[in-house]
Amino acid sequence: MVDFDYAFIQKLTDYFVEKNDLISIDCLKLQLLQPVFEITNVIPRADLETMNKFFSSFRERDIVLYGCGLTGSDALSIFVKSGANIVGFMDTYKKDSNCMGYPLISLEQYLAHYNEVLIVITSKQYEREISEFLRSNGCLNICDNYSQVVGNMLPIAEAERLFSICGQAYFIPEFLCGDNEVFVDVGCHNGATSIGFVKWCQDSKRSYQAIFAFEPDSDNYKTCQENLESLENIKVFNSACSDHNSVSKFHKDVVPTERRIDADGEIVVECCTLDSVINEEAVTLIKIDTEGHEMSVLKGAKKIITSNKPKLAITVYHNFEDIYEIPKYIWKLVPEYKFCLRHHGRSFHETVLYAYI
């Protein structure tokens, strides 16, 4: 399993306990899965040992995940972190050529080329039916107890509960809207968050001075330009944000919301640091959602963060370690920042760290 910083996790947990912020504690549990569950005694140690033994057996092993829905997405994250080699996905009802950036393998392709590869069924509701279907069609190398082993570890009902409490992302009650806000939207995607920022200012009867929006994907960038052309005082950059001014490889051959900087990417995109682009305006709010590149963006905004101490809204679910490494880094830069965690999705996705003075 992935190494993690027990000491800082406990420090962060104690911080939320002292604030009596039970929602942040629950968001922390949800993201860290069994490591934090062990600390907080949510799951008995016997269950943890079963889970760890189960996932350790997949380390460096080729597997195919059956199911392209939410449970498949969660399983992908967990198995990758466990060191498994994901060969691809199978799903009777999906007809695309790929799923979440991996090949989508048909039954015929599996039988012809992958028959020795283990199929892990990720569906809980239809696990038995899928297992029977696969076995009846000649697939014999099947793991059909995944949902039983991780049933306590994947509390989708808990994600639903937190989502119902936390609601929509970024403009939370803890963030006070001031006059002349300067917003930086890193990972603009389709411009929705920048539009939401303007509405937040209007609803708060406050003004904004400027918006800086960054989107490296050329298709998403064009959509942003179209959706944001009516906004005033906005600059949209066709660039990724990082800790350097250069170029990086970019993974584009996935769904638009998952396009990201990746060493194995198919294209090259321009990169810039926020510190090099924004050096006159006093930034008041930065939102970062960059599919796993959030820490690099923060390092490229060190000067802005230490000088302006802006409100920060940062996704912390793409990489396992982000849930503790990102708040640790922010506290190192500005120890007086206050934190809260909020969950804005119906699975393990969309957990956001908020920092404010």
Q: Give the low-pLDDT segments.
A: 34-46
Overall geometry comes to globular
Main CATH class of the largest domain: Alpha Beta
* Structural class by SSE content: alpha/beta
Structural descriptors:
357 residues; alpha/beta; Rossmann fold; 2 domains; 21% strand; globular
Please provide a written account of the structure.
By secondary structure, the protein is of the alpha/beta class. The chain folds into two domains: 44-152, Rossmann fold, CATH 3.40.50; 164-356, Vaccinia Virus protein VP39 (Rossmann fold, 3-Layer(aba) Sandwich). The protein is 39% helix and 21% strand. The protein has 15 helices and 17 strands. The protein has helices spanning 6-18, 22-32, 34-40, 45-56, 70-81, 107-113, 127-136, 146-149, 156-166, 192-203, 218-228, 274-277, 294-299, 302-308, 322-333; strands at 62-66, 85-90, 98-99, 102-103, 118-121, 142-143, 181-186, 208-214, 234-237, 240-241, 246-251, 260-261, 267-272, 285-288, 311-315, 338-343, 351-356. It has a seven-stranded mixed β-sheet with strand order 9-8-7-14-15-17-16, sandwiched between helices. Helix 5 (70-81) links the parallel strand 1 (62-66) and strand 2. Helix 2 crosses helix 3 (34-40) and helix 2 (22-32) packs antiparallel against helix 9. The protein starts with 5 loop residues before the first helix and ends with a strand. The model is unreliable at 34-46 (pLDDT under 50).
Topology overview:
Blueprint: H1 6-18, H2 22-32, H3 34-40, H4 45-56, E1 62-66, H5 70-81, E2 85-90, E3 98-99, E4 102-103, H6 107-113, E5 118-121, H7 127-136, E6 142-143, H8 146-149, H9 156-166, E7 181-186, H10 192-203, E8 208-214, H11 218-228, E9 234-237, E10 240-241, E11 246-251, E12 260-261, E13 267-272, H12 274-277, E14 285-288, H13 294-299, H14 302-308, E15 311-315, H15 322-333, E16 338-343, E17 351-356
Helix pairs in contact: 2-3, 2-9
